[in-house]
Amino acid sequence: MASEKDLSHIAYQILSQAHTPLEAQSIFTDKILHKPLNLRPTSPDPTSQDARARRRLKRLRQAEHLRRRRKPKPLTAREKRVLGIYEIPKEDQRYEIYEPLHRMWVGYMWEILGLKEGEQAYVTVEGAGSKLASADYHGAELEVVRSRCVGRVGSKGIVVKDTKFTFEMITKRNVLRTVPKRHSVFRFKVPHPTAGQPAGQSAMPNEASVEVPSIEEPRYLIFELHGSHFEARATDRATKRFKQRRIDDL
């Protein structure tokens, strides 16, 4: 039952004009007297603030993880030139530094040509031509034998950089020379492997062995490269298939 105070309420009086006394009392009790009142209806829920902070922290951690795993951006060609990554310092432009590289390259050429100590082997164009065309010439000792520029003829040195259009060589005078491949012919020699010590020792009975120096000269396999048809990087030549074809300007 509604009290006298509720009956005198203006909202109850308005409801009683449109509804029966029982309905007016029920609506007044549920909708007006027991209606929840939000003290701060526009304030965010504290729990929602914590969830937002957790999501933001999770995003920051994921971004930091991706930043650490991401590979560094490669340098551009201009940045490489400015930093001088591929330039050889002046103190390293010495011939004796690259002599071990040349000896290693000779062993590499023996493997390509199938040369072994103490075995007879023949090198033919059909068998070794494509292998020599795709070989790496870092460490080779090249000599310019023909060129349109007369000043380049006779230049000889160990290749320290084999680019698409040039050979960079260290001469015995510790000079770094850049020789263009186009309109130049290069010659290189591969020493033939020998079978151990040369036969020059003789043992006499009751006498110490006497060493007789060998007068046999070392043998070389001599090849020539036509630079105009060799304009490719070493990495590109390694994966390229070469075919024999007629070249009219040779």
Task: Give a short synopsis of this structure.
This protein is α+β, with helices and mostly antiparallel strands.
SSE topology:
Layout: H1 4-7, H2 10-18, H3 21-33, H4 46-69, H5 77-83, H6 99-113, H7 125-133, E1 141-147, E2 156-162, E3 166-170, E4 176-180, E5 184-191, E6 201-202, E7 210-211, E8 220-226, H8 234-238
Antiparallel strand pairs: 1-2, 1-5, 2-3, 3-4, 5-8, 6-7
Q: Enumerate how many helices there are, as a single number.
A: 8
Major beta-sheet overview: 6 strands, antiparallel
| Helical content class | 25-40%
CA distance, first residue to last residue: 122 Å
Shape: rod-shaped
Helix-strand category: alpha+beta
Query: Which H/E pattern describes the elements?
Result: HHHHHHHEEEEEEEEH
Proportion of strand residues:
15-25%
Number of distinct beta strands: 8
Average pLDDT: 79
**Multimeric organization:** single chain
Biggest β-sheet: strands ordered side by side in the sheet: 4-3-2-1-5-8
Rg calculated over all Cα atoms = 45 Å
Low-pLDDT runs of 5+ residues are: 195-213
